[in-house]
Each structure stands twice: as structure tokens, then as C-alpha cells.
């Protein structure tokens, strides 16, 4: 399919303070007319030196800060996020490096935190682990739901994170690769009913690894 | 209005102190006299010395729950040194303060290097010290201390005992240390953000340990003076109630529980506020037990106001 | 790890002591430990959510003082006891409000509430003890059922309640989660304030029950009877593997820790060790256990 899922056009952002507003009296641009297209099913890699503006671009995409100039279109429709919640509502979310999970609980308890299955008030353990097992195997992962989250590998923990927070479009910030096979699993299976199109920000790599993914490079223009 | 006066007024505790003093003068008979003022000064002197140390510890974001028990240990040790072993006065004083320093060193080392939270550490060491003091004293109270020792705290100058002047002197030193020296700035920085302070090159480990050393040393000095004042050396001196009173004074004086913010002047006023209330309660013949509950109410009110105020900003 | 060591130490120390490993003495140890045991159930929950409760001592003094005075004035036993328990729950709720709504550090608010409670216990009867309670009440503390002290049953019941809450209800899961990662608990839309209120209120409830039981055992309410139990409760939890870093700790193991502390005290008593020296040991034990568990946690984190 060739339709554009996401377009970012001419995004310009001046240097900003902690609330996202431009610092008065400065004309330093973090992003200068950046454009970026994403089609259904694509995985993109965004590279750049420290301070080049990768996180800023992603923050704008995620609705955390507003662009000073430029526009974002989702499936051809211009969007203007008032905050991260609106972005999430449209299916854009982050998979953070710091996982939003409890390392001291097991996988099943993490997945069902807040909506634990109960039988007259008491935790229904069989349902809890049964549903967790079913969910994990339907996605093709061989993760044991009774294992403490802290004992899983980082990659597995991030998968559980995605399961807890399924999204349509995920921007993933990773330090170092999180493994090719997992990435392809996500792309093939999809989480929930729609397939995620993760676009990754890889940090701390010296040379872009040779790969067939479209690579966008942001240069520090100061 | 001078800058200093402005700063004092901004510090709420000074204002409360003035209001309380006025209320005392108006409502309580025999409050408004030089004698009563001297009594309040006398009562405030020893806690004032102890609160200086606690202020420093609170500024680092920690707490010293062993303070009252250091007082008890110091009292017991003073009795032994002065009466049982017959040490000269100078040695007794120096050794007692040194004993406090060693306790503080232990507290500081455990908190800083063993990473045990301060409230657990000092709670534990407090109990340990209490046990040690009790064992040392074997249940006895040592009284009738040598006059040369008593002179250290009891000599009268201008109608006030030396302990008052010692307190003033210590307060001055503390003020200088906390508000005008590199140590004090390091203290504050550590309290606000220990990691940032450490990364900017401050010797945070030493600063942290030093605060506990100073706190327990001052507590020991307070214990010594208290022993002199009542002419009795025993392990029950001070105790948990004393610790609580000191913490109350520091918080009423504006020292923040979260670290970073503290004021010597504020803490001194905190002690004075507590002592004025105590004084009025005595003059009005109100039950002392009620006062203990009231003390708790005061600190709660102050904390609540402080939290509400920082919410509003 | 730690509880295993505790049990081993228990066996090693207990075997050579005459009279220790007799059924009568052991049941007595449990009966005396029941106070700490009941407190440790609530304390476990509080420590799991990264809190602490230093008001135990005050509540163990105040709550039975309330119910005791009521009973001495002719109020029926059940109503008196319920009032005492309500006092504990109420003060626990107050702690919870301070911690959750006003962000006051738990050690300060509970320290203050404890002092206020202690002060009130002293005021209520002018610093004097009260005693001479109805036989039915005293029987709770000293009576036997099928050869086992009622106190032991009470501790087991409280332990059971604690275990059910923590291991078998959604609330328990959320309490552990809160100790592990408060952010994600909020993100899932769970009312964190209400969780904290519950935990501190429950801890107050436990302290109230413990205090009332103690006074039933002694047929006295001494206004400062709570002091020894503050430190021992924390020691019991810490020995039982409840981590001060939050998120870890099981009620059952806290009870094991209780029995360890209770046995240690009992053994030291049998050996004629002075109570004050016992306190020295307990204080040292707490610090060492917390240190050791901190070190092992760092090692595990480094390996992962």
C-alpha cells in the first residue's frame, strides 16, 4: 500500500524552555524546515549527532511540544495536538527506554494491573495467568507469564511494555539495537488489530549499520 | 528598613515568636517580667544548641533520631568522668563532646557509605546508645557533681547562666558555617540534589558525614550542660521526647523536611516559640501531658501550612 | 534468604538452651510475639509502599486506653473495643491523608501522630495506668482454646487477613505495584491516594488490635506501654525480608521475622541478658540486615 500515513512538513522549532515554548530573544533553530513521510508498514531509522534534534522532532510528533512552524498530517488530515493525550488518541505513542512497568511483579500481574480478573473480589489466578498465556502465545512470544518482570531480558520487557500499551504508531527510542527478530515479529503480527509502524530513534551508534530501512539523518545546523 | 530586618520579618517564625510574646504579655499574668524572660532564655539555651546540629542534618535531607539518646549517653558519661573517675573538668568536657563526635561519625558513615536510610540508622543507633547508657549507669543516677564542672554551665553573668552565652556563641558559629561558608553552600546543594552536587565536584560524602558528626557533638554538649543544670547524670536524660522537641523547633523555624532549606535564625526562633508556649503552659498551670499533645499539633499545623503554601506556588 | 538464616539461627541458638524448645515455652513465645506479629502485618504493607509507620508505639498506648476507660465506665466490652479500634483506624487514615494529599514524608507524620497519640494517652488518665477489666476481656489475652492461647489465634487470623489482601486481591497487586513503580500505577488510572489511605489505615487498625490485645494480656493499660514494640515491629519486618526499597515483602515472612525476634528476646531473657542490652542487639540487627539486603540488591542489579 502506498498511501501516506504520516507527513511532517516544514517543521521548524526554535530553542525552547521546559514547557515547550520558545525562549524569548533567541533565534537559534533546533529544527529548520524538517520534513518526513511515513507509509503504512514502514520502519524508519532516524540518526543524528547529539543535539541534532531527533528527540525534539519526536516530541513534536508525540504532541509533547508544539512546532513553531510547519504541519503534521495523519492520513492526509492535518492534526494539531494540544498534548500527548491527543496524540495517543490518534495512535501515536512512545516506547520509552525506561519501561513503565513494575519490575517486582510478574508478567501477568503487570499486564493486568488495574483490570485484574476477580471472582467475588478475590484474584482469579487461573484466569489471570490463562489470559496472559493466551495473549502472549497469540502474538507468537514464548514469554512465561509467571516470571518476575525484572528477570526478563530487556527486549522481552519492552515487548511486555508494548502489550500493556498497544499502539498504532510507535516511536521507539532505544540505546543500542533491540534485536531484529523481535522487530519483524511486531511487523508481521501486529499488536491488537492494527499493525504498528515503529520508527526508531537509535542512539549511541557511531556508524549507521548497513540495513535496508530508510535512514533519515538530522544534521546539527548551528 | 534595613535588609537584615526585612529578612527577619520574612522569616515567619520570627513573626510567630513576636505574636506569641505579645499574647503572653497580654493574657498571662507574671509573663511580662525580666525574671520570666531570663527563665525562658535559660530553658531555651540547651535545646538551642542541639537544634543547630539537627538543622544541618535536616538540610541534607536526613534526620537524626538518635539525638535525644546521645544526650542521655553524654549525661551518663559526664557523670562517670567527673565523679567516678575524677577527670579534670577540661578533659570531661572535651571527652564528652568527642564521644558525641564518634557517634555522629558512626551515623554518618552508615548513612553515607552503607546507604541505610537515615531514619532507620539513627533509630537503630539511638536504641543502641540507650541500651549502652543504661548498662553503664546500672540504673544509678550520679548526683552532686564537682563544683568545678558545675561552674561551666552555672556561672552567672548579667543574671544569665553561662549556658545561655555558650548557646549564643554556638548559634553565631553555626550561622556563619551554614550561611556564609563553602561548607554551608555544599550542605544546601547536597540537600537539594545530592547527585548534582556530587557531579559538580563537591565532596558530598564528607559533607554528609560531617553534618552527623556536628549534630551528635552538639547533642553531647547539650547533654553535658543539661547534666550540669540539674546536677544529675543519668541515661534517661533527653530521650525520644527531646529529639521530637528539637525536630519540631527546626521545622517550625522553617527548615524543610526535604532538605536544602534551613535557617539558623529560624531554628533558634523555633526553640524560643516552643519555650514560650511551655512557659505559658506552666504559668497557666495546664497539664504537661496536654502540652506534649499540643506540641504535636503545632508541628502538624506548620507542616500542613508549609505543604499548602508550596502547592500554591 | 534472610528468613532462612533466621530460622537456622533460631534452631542453632535454641537447641542448647534448656526449657526453650518445650511446647509450653514455644507457645508462650508465640503468645508474647503476637503483639509484634499483629503490628508487623500492617507494617509490611506500609514498608512495601515505601513508607514507614512510627506511630505504632503511640497507638498501642492510646487505643486500649480509649477502650479501657470506656469499659471501666460501664460501656459494653464489644463497643469499647470497637471504639478503640476506630481510634487506631482514624489516626491511620490521618497519616494516610498527610502522606498522600500533602506529600508529607511518612516518617515525620507518623512520628508526630505517634507523639500526639502518646500525649493523649497520658492526658486521658493523668499519666496513670488503668486496670481491672471485665473477665471476658482479660480472657482474650490470657485464655486458651483447645490448648492454644487465644492470642495466637488472633495473630494467625490477622496474618491470614494480611495474606489474603496482599496475595489474593487486586488491591494487594496494586500495593506491590505502587512500591515498584508509582508512575505506572497512576497511568493505569488507579487511585493512588486511596491505596495509601488504605495501607496506613490498615496499619493503624493492626496497631489498635495489638494494643488492645496487650492490655487484655496484662489486664492493664500503661500509658507508655507501646515503646518496646515500635523497634521490634520494624525488626520483624526487616528480618522477614521486607525490603525498605519497596515493592517486596510478604506478610507470612514478616510473621516468621516476628517469631525470630520473639525467640531472640525469649532466649536472651532465659539467659538473663539485661533488656537494655537486648535493645542494643536489636538495633544492631536491624542496621545490619538492612545493610546486607541493600548490598545483595546492588549485586543482583549489577549482575542483571
Describe this protein's structure.
- The complex is a heterotrimer of chains A (222), B (313) and C (304).
- Helices cover 24% and strands 27% of the residues of chain A.
- By secondary structure, chain A is of the alpha/beta class.
- In chain B, the strands form 2 sheets. Chain B has a two-stranded antiparallel ribbon. In chain B, strands 2-3 form a two-stranded antiparallel ribbon.
- The mean pLDDT of chain B is 86.
- Chain B contains 14 helices and 4 strands.
- In chain C, strands 1-4 form a two-stranded antiparallel ribbon. In chain C, strands 2-3 form a two-stranded antiparallel ribbon.
- Chains in contact: A-C, B-C.
- The B-C interface holds B 63, 110, 114-117, 119-121, 123-128, 130-132, 134-135, 241, 244, 247, 251, 257-258, 287, 289-297, 299-300, 303-304, 307-308 and C 52, 98, 102-105, 107-109, 111-113, 115-116, 118-120, 122-123, 126-127, 231, 234, 244, 274, 276-280, 282-284, 286-287, 290-291, 294.
Order of helices and strands of chain C: HHHHHEHEEHHHHEHHH
> How many β-strand runs of chain C?
4
Any idea how many domains of chain C? 1
Q: Ends of chain A: how far apart? A: 38 Å
Q: Quick one: overall form of chain A? A: elongated
Structural class, judged by helices and strands of chain C? mainly alpha
Q: In the CATH hierarchy, what is the class of chain C?
A: Mainly Alpha
> Which architecture of chain C does the CATH hierarchy give at level 2?
Orthogonal Bundle
Give average pLDDT of chain A, whole number: 70
Mean pLDDT of chain C: 88
Tally of individual helices of chain C: 13
How would a textbook summarize the main sheet of chain A? 5 strands, parallel
Number of strands of chain A: 11
Q: Which strand order do you get reading across the main beta sheet of chain A?
A: 6-9-10-3-11
Helix content of chain A: 10-25%
Taken in chain order, the helices and strands of chain A follow as: EEEHEEHEHEEHHEHEE
Amino acid at each position: 500500500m502506498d498511501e501516506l500515513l504520516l507527513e511532517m512538513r516544514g517543521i521548524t522549532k526554535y530553542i525552547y524552555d521546559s514547557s515547550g515554548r520558545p525562549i524569548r530573544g533567541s533565534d537559534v533553530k533546533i529544527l529548520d524546515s524538517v520534513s518526513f513521510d511515513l507509509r503504512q508498514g514502514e520502519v524508519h531509522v532516524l540518526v543524528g549527532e547529539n543535539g541534532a534534534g531527533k528527540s525534539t522532532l519526536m516530541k513534536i510528533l508525540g504532541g509533547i511540544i508544539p512546532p513553531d512552524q510547519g504541519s503534521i498530517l495523519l492520513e492526509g488530515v492535518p492534526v494539531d495536538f494540544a498534548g500527548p493525550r491527543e496524540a495517543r488518541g490518534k495512535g501515536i505513542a512512545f516506547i520509552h527506554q525506561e519501561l513503565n512497568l513494575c519490575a517486582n511483579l510478574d508478567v501477568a500481574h503487570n499486564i493486568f494491573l488495574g483490570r485484574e480478573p476477580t471472582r467475588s473480589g478475590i484474584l482469579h489466578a487461573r484466569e489471570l495467568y490463562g489470559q496472559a498465556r493466551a495473549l502472549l502465545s497469540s502474538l507468537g512470544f514464548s514469554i512465561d507469564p509467571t516470571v518476575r518482570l525484572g528477570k526478563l531480558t530487556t527486549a522481552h520487557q519492552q515487548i511486555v511494555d508494548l502489550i500493556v500499551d498497544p499502539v498504532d504508531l510507535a516511536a521507539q527510542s532505544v540505546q543500542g539495537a533491540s534485536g531484529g527478530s523481535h522487530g519483524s515479529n511486531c511487523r508481521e503480527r501486529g499488536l491488537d488489530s492494527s499493525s504498528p509502524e515503529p520508527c526508531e530513534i537509535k542512539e549511541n551508534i557511531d556508524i549507521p549499520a548497513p540495513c535496508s530501512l530508510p535512514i533519515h539523518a538530522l544534521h546539527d545546523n548551528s | 528598613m534595613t535588609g537584615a530586618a526585612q529578612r527577619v520579618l520574612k522569616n515567619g517564625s520570627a513573626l510567630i515568636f513576636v505574636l506569641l510574646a505579645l499574647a503572653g504579655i497580654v493574657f498571662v499574668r507574671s509573663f511580662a517580667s525580666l525574671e520570666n524572660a531570663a527563665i525562658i532564655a535559660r530553658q531555651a539555651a540547651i535545646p538551642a544548641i542541639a537544634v543547630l546540629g539537627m538543622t544541618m542534618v535536616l538540610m541534607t535531607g536526613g534526620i537524626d533520631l538518635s539525638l535525644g539518646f546521645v544526650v542521655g549517653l553524654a549525661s551518663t558519661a559526664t557523670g562517670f568522668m567527673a565523679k567516678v573517675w575524677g577527670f579534670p573538668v577540661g578533659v570531661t568536657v572535651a571527652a564528652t563532646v568527642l564521644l558525641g563526635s564518634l557517634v555522629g561519625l558512626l551515623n554518618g558513615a552508615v548513612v553515607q557509605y552503607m546507604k541505610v536510610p537515615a531514619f532507620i540508622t539513627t533509630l537503630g543507633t539511638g536504641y543502641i546508645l540507650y541500651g549502652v547508657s543504661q548498662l553503664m549507669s546500672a540504673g544509678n543516677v550520679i548526683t552532686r557533681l564537682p563544683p568545678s564542672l558545675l561552674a561551666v554551665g552555672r556561672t552567672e553573668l548579667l543574671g544569665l547562666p553561662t549556658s545561655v552565652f555558650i548557646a549564643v556563641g554556638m548559634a553565631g558559629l553555626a550561622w556563619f558555617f551554614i550561611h556564609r561558608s563553602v561548607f554551608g553552600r555544599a550542605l544546601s546543594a547536597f540537600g537539594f540534589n545530592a547527585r548534582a552536587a556530587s557531579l559538580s565536584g563537591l565532596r558530598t560524602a564528607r559533607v554528609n558525614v560531617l553534618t552527623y558528626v556536628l549534630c551528635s557533638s552538639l547533642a553531647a554538649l547539650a547533654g553535658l550542660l543539661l547534666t550540669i543544670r540539674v546536677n544529675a547524670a543519668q541515661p534517661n536524660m533527653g530521650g525520644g521526647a527531646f529529639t521530637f522537641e528539637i525536630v519540631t523547633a527546626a521545622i517550625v523555624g522553617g527548615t524543610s523536611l526535604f532538605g536544602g532549606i534551613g535557617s539558623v535564625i529560624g531554628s533558634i526562633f523555633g526553640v524560643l516559640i516552643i519555650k514560650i508556649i511551655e512557659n505559658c503552659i506552666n504559668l497557666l498551670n495546664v497539664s504537661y501531658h496536654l502540652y506534649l499533645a499540643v506540641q504535636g499539633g503545632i508541628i502538624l499545623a506548620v507542616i500542613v501550612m508549609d505543604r499548602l503554601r508550596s502547592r500554591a506556588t | 534468604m534472610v528468613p532462612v538464616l533466621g530460622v537456622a539461627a533460631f534452631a542453632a541458638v535454641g537447641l542448647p538452651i534448656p526449657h526453650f524448645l518445650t511446647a509450653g515455652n514455644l507457645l508462650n513465645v508465640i503468645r508474647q510475639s503476637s503483639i509484634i506479629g499483629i503490628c508487623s502485618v500492617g507494617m509490611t504493607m506500609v514498608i512495601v509502599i515505601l513508607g514507614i509507620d512510627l506511630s505504632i508505639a503511640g497507638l498501642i498506648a492510646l487505643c486500649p486506653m480509649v477502650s479501657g476507660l470506656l469499659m471501666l465506665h460501664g460501656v459494653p466490652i464489644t463497643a469499647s473495643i470497637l471504639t478503640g479500634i476506630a481510634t487506631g483506624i482514624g489516626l491511620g487514615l490521618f497519616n494516610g491523608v498527610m502522606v498522600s494529599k500533602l506529600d508529607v514524608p511518612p516518617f515525620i507524620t507518623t512520628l508526630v501522630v505517634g507523639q500526639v497519640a502518646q500525649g493523649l494517652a497520658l492526658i486521658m488518665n493523668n499519666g496513670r495506668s488503668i486496670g481491672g477489666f471485665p473477665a471476658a476481656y482479660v480472657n482474650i489475652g490470657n485464655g486458651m482454646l483447645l490448648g492454644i492461647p487465644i492470642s495466637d489465634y488472633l495473630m494467625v487470623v490477622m496474618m491470614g487477613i494480611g495474606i489474603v489482601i496482599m496475595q489474593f486481591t487486586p488491591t494487594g497487586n496494586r500495593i506491590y505495584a505502587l512500591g515498584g513503580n508509582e508512575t505506572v500505577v497512576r497511568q493505569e488510572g488507579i487511585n493512588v491516594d486511596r491505596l495509601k489511605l488504605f495501607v496506613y489505615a490498615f496499619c493503624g487498625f493492626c496497631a489498635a488490635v495489638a494494643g488492645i490485645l496487650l492490655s487484655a494480656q496484662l489486664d492493664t493499660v500503661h500509658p507508655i506501654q507501646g515503646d518496646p514494640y515500635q523497634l521490634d515491629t520494624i525488626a520483624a519486618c526487616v528480618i522477614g525480608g521486607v525490603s525498605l526499597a519497596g515493592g517486596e515483602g510478604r506478610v507470612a515472612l514478616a510473621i516468621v521475622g516476628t517469631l525470630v525476634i520473639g525467640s531472640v528476646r525469649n532466649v536472651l531473657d532465659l539467659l538473663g541478658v539485661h533488656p537494655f542490652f537486648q535493645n542494643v542487639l536489636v538495633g544492631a540487627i536491624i542496621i545490619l540486615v538492612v545493610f546486607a539486603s541493600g548490598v545483595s540488591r546492588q549485586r543482583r542489579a549489577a549482575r542483571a
